[in-house]
């Protein structure tokens, strides 16, 4: 199956630019998520890949075949790109049975009845909906209807499967089930998948690669671990993660920021140009005894100002240096509101950004070496 290559892709609507300077490669058989807030350009990008939107500039190729390039006056129609598109709306035919819905695309392609029935049955069995073959869409749950929509696309064996927030209409339990289903589909069919979502956990749990977008530009492309542990800038760091990352702005002169600045200056003078530090809530540890602190770690005195159970984990609010810091733990905290203690963070868990919010490139190597 072919990969997809976007080079310097632009998309404008009159005076509004939706996507600008986008360079992106989706490898053969890859599951890539386009992640970002509403209006960031992710759905527009998907629609350009599908051929539902024309590029304003740049080029888009599927394998070695250029399918859209304004400079060459090249545009390949959506139905000739070999792609399947599943929208947020299931768009099932209410008057057709599930079997007929699944086989609808094959019928349009004039596939013979015997072959159509065979292929339809195989896909329905793979997605666990064969037992509903004689029912109608109104007789199925939302999750079952979503499986039918996916089966309809997979039946025609598309080279690329494009999914535009297909799980957003489902409740929490069904969303979880369908995430697992999509992972299984990808492993079974080896289809190249491009998936649009604003849900960070969907992207983290489903994707091989995540492309984080904001205001029409690509912020970072990487594995889920890269995106979470080594965010390219503050936007990525603050968008991905719940509870959100704690940010210490060096422009603010509270005690905690001063302590962080001193820590970097004394322990890691190789790092220059730091404008802020990001600390993930799960990277924070607490100690009631100062003597138990590791000398190499960043530490500060704190007071427990809140404990929030979330079911299976706890968010602990810490007041330190005149500000609130949030810690996340999967072990029941043995502290109470009002307790005074110490917070500590390993050097390797500090995300250092410059004054523009860009990750300080040397920080990973320096801090990891220091923590070893």
UniProtKB/TrEMBL annotation:
A single GO molecular function term of this UniProt record: ATP binding
Natural source organism: Wenxinia marina DSM 24838
GO cellular component, one term: ATP-binding cassette (ABC) transporter complex, substrate-binding subunit-containing
Name of this protein: Carbohydrate ABC transporter ATP-binding protein, CUT1 family
Source taxon at top rank: Bacteria
Ranges where the ABC transporter domain occurs: 4-240
TM regions (residue ranges): none
Keyword ATP-binding part of the UniProt annotation: yes
EC code: 3.6.3.30
Family: Belongs to the ABC transporter superfamily.
Pfam families in the record: ABC_tran, TOBE_2
PROSITE patterns documented for this protein: ABC_TRANSPORTER_1, ABC_TRANSPORTER_2
EC category: hydrolase
Keywords noted in UniProt: ATP-binding, Cell membrane, Hydrolase, Membrane, Nucleotide-binding, Translocase, Transport
């Amino acid at each position: 199956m072919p990969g997809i290559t976007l080079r310097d892709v632009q998309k404008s609507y009159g005076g509004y630019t939706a996507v600008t300077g986008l360079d992106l490669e989706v490898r053969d058989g890859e599951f890539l998520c386009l992640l970002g807030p509403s209006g960031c350009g992710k759905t527009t990008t998907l629609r350009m890949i599908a051929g539902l939107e024309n590029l304003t500039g740049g080029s888009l190729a599927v394998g070695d075949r250029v399918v859209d390039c304004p400079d060459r006056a090249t545009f390949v129609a959506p139905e000739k790109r070999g792609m399947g598109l599943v929208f947020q709306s299931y768009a099932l035919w209410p008057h057709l049975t599930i079997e007929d819905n699944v086989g609808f695309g094959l019928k349009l392609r004039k596939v013979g009845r015997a072959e159509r029935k065979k292929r339809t049955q195989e896909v329905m069995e793979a997605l666990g909906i064969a037992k509903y073959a004689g029912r109608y869409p109104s007789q199925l749950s939302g999750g079952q209807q979503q499986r039918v929509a996916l089966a309809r696309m997979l039946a025609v064996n598309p080279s690329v499967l494009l999914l535009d927030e297909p799980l957003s209409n489902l409740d929490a339990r069904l969303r979880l089930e369908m995430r697992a289903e999509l992972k299984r589909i990808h492993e079974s069919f080896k289809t190249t998948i491009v998936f649009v979502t604003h849900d960070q956990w969907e992207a983290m749990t489903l994707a091989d690669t995540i492309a984080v977008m904001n205001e029409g530009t690509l912020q970072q492309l990487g594995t889920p671990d890269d995106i979470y542990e080594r965010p390219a800038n503050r936007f990525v760091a603050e968008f991905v993660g719940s509870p959100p990352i704690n940010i210490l702005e060096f422009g603010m002169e509270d005690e905690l920021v001063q302590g962080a600045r001193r820590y970097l200056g004394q322990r890691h003078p190789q790092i220059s140009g730091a404008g802020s530090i990001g600390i993930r809530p799960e990277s924070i540890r607490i100690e009631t005894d100062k003597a138990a602190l590791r000398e190499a770690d960043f530490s500060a005195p704190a007071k427990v100002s809140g404990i929030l159970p979330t079911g299976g984990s706890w968010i602990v609010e810490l007041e330190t240096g005149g500000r609130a810091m949030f810690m996340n733990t999967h072990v029941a905290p043995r502290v109470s509101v009002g307790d005074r203690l110490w917070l500590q963070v390993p050097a390797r868990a500090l995300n250092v950004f410059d004054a523009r919010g860009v990750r300080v490139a040397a920080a990973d190597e320096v801090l990891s070496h220091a923590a070893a």
